[in-house]
């Protein structure tokens, strides 16, 4: 939040006088300055609003990307587990060390026998 100073106030070790603007004040300090009537809250600029919206959108996109990646990873693990079970059922040894591609090839060979 940005505060326009209406009196004399000290913020983070620096003195501000009437008409000064204190930028990027955290909520607790801003409320303190407003409560003691030493300043007023300035409305957000269009740039600040746009930056906040952009940050929120980026956060949402990243959360969706992570969720999709986790879902894909779970599906891959599920498929690998199924391949390992099928390979074990076919009597293939060492399935725990094999990747999905190797398992699929070994299963195909075992099924052709």
TrEMBL record:
The DUF7210 domain, residue ranges: 1-33
Protein name: DUF7210 domain-containing protein
Protein keywords: Coiled coil
Pfam families assigned to the protein according to its UniProt record, in alphabetical order: DUF7210
Coiled coil (UniProt feature): 51-93
